[in-house]
Amino acid sequence: MAWAWNHKGGEISAPIVNGRYDFYGLWADSYTICFQEQNYVDLTCYGGGGFYDPPNVTVSEGEVLDGIDATVVRGGQILGEVHGAGDPQWQVRLLRRDPDTGDYGDELDSYTSAAFGFSAVAAGTYRLQVVDQTNANRAQYWDGAQFADGATDIVVTSGHTVDLGTITAQPWNIDMQRTGGSDRFAVSAAVSNERFPVIPASGVPVVYVADGLNFPDALSAGPAAIKDDGDILLVTPMAIPPPIAAELARLRPQRIVVVGGTASVNEAVLHQLDAYVTGASGKATRLAGVDRFAASRNVARSAFGTDGAPTVFIATGNNYPDALSAGPAAGSVSAPVILVDGLASHLDSATTALLHDLHTTSVDIVGGPASLSFGIQEDLEGIVGPSHVTVFGGSTRYDNAAQLGATFFRHTDLVYFAVGTNFADALSAAALAGHDRAPIDLVESNCVPASVEYWVRAQAAQSIRLIGGQVSLGSGVEAMTPCPA
Q1: Which of these, 17, 161, 154, 151, lies nearest to 75 by C-alpha position?
Q2: Domains and CATH numbers, the chain
Q3: Is 408 exposed, middle or buried (0-12, 13-18, 19+ CB in 10 A)?
Q4: Cα separation of 327 and 322, whole Å?
Q5: Are 370 and 321 contacting, i.e. CB atoms less than 8 angstroms apart?
Q6: Is 150 in contact with 175 (CB distance < 8 Å)?
Q7: Organism's domain of life (predicted)?
Q8: pLDDT tens string for the chain (485 positions)?
Q9: 3-class secondary structure per residue, the chain
Q10: 78 CB burial (10 A radius; 0-12, 13-18, 19+)
Q11: Phi-psi region for residue 168, left (φ > 0), alpha (ψ -120 to 50) or beta?
């Protein structure tokens, strides 16, 4: 069978008879032309391209093209059966090894209750994962590994069948615990206690303090605290809540850094914080700016200016979800999160200068075009090169968090959940998650979005930590109840 796909997503097929095919009535457009014989033949495309490559044949109005030929390559088969507890419904994922990079990427999916088979598998090296969509069984790779990097290779050769036999999955028993409190400040203190259950003799290196009633100034504090092996605590603009005061006394921080201007944390609170500083200065310091974007740049420059930041995360400062999800991911690669005005048509000169000062060579954008304009993306590409800009832009805040988890936390079985409709709990958890090399996935208050649920299942997570009380994360989250589609 011959197939043609245009750049608008349309497709047309035609039978191959005696080695010849014909497409009639094509619109003037560019097409990807591919060929596949039924059973055991790899999908082979004209020009050597694949299905996800750009279209490579252009047809003009009234034009007749001949000689759009290719030699199809006979593939192989992978067969097997998978069994587990309950009444499982398996998603069987075949991941192909890129011979150039060595990475394993999604190739094919199959859905089954037991037996599975992949035909027309191109010769190459693969790894295979089984995921139970009913959540009764742990995801695992053939044979037995939790993560792709530890799985056994499956080598497929042209025209041959690989029989994997029976795969037996283990029941999925998640250790789910909660760190909660009567309000966001009690949660913040409780999370800090988990981050530093034992206090070093000299006290903790640094505590970043931010306004717990508003989000902008604090969003860049997470990666800074992670890099400095420190902590984050929330206050109000005009007071240090009692749980936070008690936690500061316990932490005995060598430094306290207040993020934001006097509208976020006033001068009286700043001076009250002096009493908890155990370092030589004896004073809490402030990192601020004329607006939230300047404050973000100043935090990044303070924490990363000496060592530089080869990688930088960019997120909009007009809202909080993208930057919240970015915090632990950025911390995992010792990178700052820098906030910009996502609605602006171009990147501001101050951020451009900061990227040069930090010797940045790659940029991860968190948020789609609704959050961050194409103009900003193009300006970033102009600084580090298009191939060094990666966009994590799912259709929702939950998708973005899941994408970051799948990319930066492929070797962890611990996941943090925080509500995605408020910022305080996720912000408090940033330093803890960074220390544990674990992601913070944003969820609804009483259910788990599909993209998050899928990633947690595919990761075969062993432990989930809920950050926030029952009002923030209800019983539906505890039960891993999927959100309605």
Answers
A1: 161
A2: 2-59 (no CATH), 76-168 (2.60.40.10), 175-478 (no CATH)
A3: buried
A4: 9
A5: no
A6: no
A7: Bacteria
A8: 888 888 777 788 898 888 899 998 888 888 888 887 665 456 678 886 555 566 788 999 889 999 998 887 777 889 999 999 999 999 999 999 988 888 888 778 899 999 999 887 888 999 999 999 888 898 899 988 888 878 999 999 888 899 999 999 988 888 999 999 999 999 999 999 999 999 999 999 999 999 999 988 788 899 999 999 999 999 999 999 999 999 999 999 999 999 999 999 999 999 999 999 999 999 999 999 999 999 999 999 999 999 999 999 999 999 999 999 999 999 999 999 999 999 999 999 999 999 999 999 999 999 988 899 999 999 999 999 999 999 998 889 999 989 999 899 988 889 999 999 999 999 999 999 999 999 999 999 999 998 898 888 888 788 999 999 999 999 999 988 989 97
A9: CEEEEECCCCEEEECCECCECCCCCCCCEEEEEEECCCCCECCEEHHHCCCCCCCCEEECCCCCCCCCCCCCCECEEEEEEEECCCCCCEEEEEEEECCCCCCEEEEEEEEECCEEEEEEECCEEEEEEEEECCCCECCEECCCCCCHHHCCCEEECCCCEEEEEEEECCECCCEEEEECCCCHHHHHHHHHHHHCCCCCCCCCCEEEEEECCCCHHHCCHHHHHHHCCCEEEEEECCECCHHHHHHHHHHCCCEEEEECCCCCCCHHHHHHHHHHCCCCCCCCEEECCCCHHHHHHHHHHHHHCCCCCCEEEEEECCCCHHHHHHHHHHHHCCCCEEEECCCCCCCCHHHHHHHHHCCCCEEEEECCCCCCCHHHHHHHHHHHCHHHEEEECCCCHHHHHHHHHHHHCCCCCEEEEEECCCCHHHHHHHHHHHHCCCCEEEECCCCECHHHHHHHHHHCCCEEEEECCCCCCCHHHHCCCECCC
A10: buried
A11: beta
Q: Can you read off the two tokens belonging to residue 117? A: 């088979």
